[in-house]
Amino acid sequence: MEPRSTELDPRYSAPRAGALPWAGARERLAAAEVFWLSTVRPDGRPHVTPLIAVWSGEALHFCTGPDERKARNLERNREVVLTTGSGRLDEGLDLVLEGEAVRVTDEPRLRELAAAWREKYGQDWRFEVRDGAFVGDGGPALVFAVAPRTVFGFAKGDPFGQTRWRF
Q1: Hey, which CATH number is domain 5-104+136-166, 3.40.50.620, 2.60.40.10, 2.30.110.10, 3.40.50.300?
Q2: Which tens digit of pLDDT belongs to each residue from 110-128?
Q3: What is the pTM of this model?
């Protein structure tokens, strides 16, 4: 999927910065190992937690136990933000992906995703698929796909810049 628009925000960009191509941002989303997931608690307060995720089929996928806070939050509000980046001020690219978390229950698709988790994160992240969920040592895990609605890219260093991709 390609963005319908790509824009550089001059307010947050060096004069010689240019909008970044989506292909590079998508590659970084696929390669990143740690993400921060933001959800909304029932009382409206934010909840943020680190997790791992896999880019597949033009969406970012994560999993969570059905009794975890993030799963309970998603029952009421499926709007999420996933962020990743270098953790450095003067280099790298930070990415902020906004979208709706949609539960994945199709078992052939879940088997594909389980293989992607194992390939990216190794044998410690091995899942079986049963009853529309991942099943591992910690019990069942619900799987969610987040297709990007909007992604912000914050290029750091020289030149710095903010690119927005809309889908």
Answers
A1: 2.30.110.10
A2: 999 999 999 999 999 999 9
A3: 0.96
